[in-house]
Amino acid sequence: MDAAANSHLSSSGEQPIFTTRAHVFQIDPSTKKNWVPASKQAVTVSYFYDVTRNSYRIISVDGAKVIINSTITPNMTFTKTSQKFGQWADSRANTVFGLGFSSEQQLTKFAEKFQEVKEAARLARDKSQEKIETSSNHSQASSVNGTDDEKASCAGPADTHLKSENDKLKIALTQSAANVKKWEIELQTLRESNARLTSALQESAASVEQWKRQFSLCRDENDRLRNKIDELEEQCSEINREKEKNTQLKRRIEELESELREKETELIDLRKQSEIIPQLMSECEYVSEKLEAAERDNQNLEDKVRSLKTDIEESKYRQRHLKVELKSFLEVLDGKIDDLHDFRRGLSKLGADN
Prior knowledge:
- The chain is of the alpha+beta class and 354 residues long.
- It is built from four helices and eight strands, in the order αββββββββααα.
- The chain has helices spanning 3-11, 104-152, 159-275, 277-353, and strands spanning 14-27, 35-37, 43-50, 55-62, 65-71, 79-80, 85-90, 95-100.
- A hairpin with a 4-residue loop joins strand 6 (79-80) and strand 7 (85-90).
- Helix 2 (104-152) packs antiparallel against helix 3.
- The longest helix is centred in the middle third of the chain and has 117 residues, at 159-275.
- It is elongated, with a radius of gyration of 68 Å.
- Mean pLDDT is 81; it is low at 1-5 and 146-155.
């Protein structure tokens, strides 16, 4: 609440006894069902106590606009409709106020304070009624006493004063009776307004329950549709798998048909070849005879090769032997040649000496 509002309330004798912040709502007057936001954001909501009137009010101001001005009476009830939302009906303002808090703890504190202030308002109302009844009884007693005095003494110096006081008391009693009648009418009006607000609140609660049931039905329907969609997706997956299998089977059938055509072609070729089998068999016998002759010639050639290999080995052996003998002969020849050279040198020497 701003400073101007605080100053005005303080000057009028009201003091804040509890303050919190909440989003303020009012029931839609046309439908009595929907909530209409009274503030765009969370605002200050305070309990005020009026010392002069001995009354309690809930006041909230958004900028320069008063959005809650609700006098608390013993007949009011604050109802928690959710973990962070509460409401109460004000028959004098002919509306229902709703408060949205940021936490459940704030809602609990506000509800406890509402109950406390409501009880204090009830005690103040009871004391006020006791004072009215006491004043009324006192006025009636004074009136009776004044009448007896008039009968006891027809004249006296205090008669005029007592008559004047008696008239004042009669006027006060009449005004008190008129005030009581007015209060009774106002109380009846408040009860009727309270009954209308209670009916509207019940209708709102019934609408909330209906919305909850509809939401539950929609949620169940949504779950059912989701399950149906999952089943359809699974069926689509199975259909796709079956299509893929069919495609694979078609490809396999085509491959088998191709292989079958190839086998049929091979069978035709084999049938054609079977027609020339006798000729091939005679040719095979002729080739077999030639092969046997060739094998015999090959055997003879192998024998000759082995004989030649033996002769070659013997020739190689003789060659090695001849090489050894030739080497020995060459060594002997070299020795003889050396001896001959020595002999010639000796002859030359002898000729030179002679």
